Amino acid sequence: MFVLLRHLQRVRREAALPPRRGARSLAIRHVDAGSCNACEHELTATAAPQYDLQRFGLDIVASPRHADVLLVTGPVTTRMEGALLAAYEAMPEPRRVAALGDCALGCGVLGAAAELAGPLDRLLPVDIRIPGCPPTPQEIADAILDAIPASQSPGSP
Ligand code: SF4
């Protein structure tokens, strides 16, 4: 156990994320709108011990009613359009939308035009863009952390 903890400590040190970015918090609701699941794989890694996004106050929540950010992966298939819009409507204001991966951003390789309602910015206002196929956990973490307004930091006016 001790060896494992030492190893995790070293891995975290080697990851380029800075040790502190100030105390902030953000609740994220993820919706898979037809991805190939590679984007989800990388997103899951951001919560693993190497990146451990929760230490920055970021959390993936189960309900859009608790979320500040709607994080969308995939090109938005016609079958997922209704569920995605329902999740957005359930979110409290202020709410933001993040497009994770090239599919959500509109240049993905999945699906034919007839099967797609996306790209995401055709349906919702996209505030955070995270390009890549898939983006790395560090790119995901950096983009989300950069999007947290300074006003959410305790101690700011
Ligand atoms: S952007 Fe790439 S990795 Fe992500 S869902 Fe699309 S094809 Fe898969």
Reconstruct the topology from this structure.
Blueprint: H1 2-14, E1 26-32, H2 38-46, E2 58-60, E3 69-73, H3 78-90, E4 96-100, H4 102-105, E5 128-130, H5 137-147
Parallel strand pairs: 1-2, 1-3, 3-4, 4-5
Residues 35-36, 38-39, 73-74, 101-103, 108-110, 133-134 line the site of iron/sulfur cluster (SF4).
Major sheet strand order: 2-1-3-4-5
Which structural category do the helix and sheet elements fall into? alpha/beta
Total beta strand runs: 5
Rounded to the nearest angstrom, the distance between the terminal CA atoms is 43 Å
CATH architectural type: 3-Layer(aba) Sandwich
- State the major sheet: 5 strands, parallel
CATH names the topology as Rossmann fold
Number of domains: 1
Q: How many distinct helices?
A: 5
Give the distinct bound molecules.
iron/sulfur cluster
Q: DSSP strand (E) fraction?
A: 5-15%
Radius of gyration: 16 Å
Proportion of helical residues: 25-40%
Give the CATH level 1 class.
Answer: Alpha Beta
Runs in which pLDDT lies below 50 for 5 or more consecutive residues are 153-157
Mean pLDDT: 84
Q: What order do the SSEs take from the amino end to the carboxyl end, as H and E?
A: HEHEEHEHEH
Spatial shape: globular
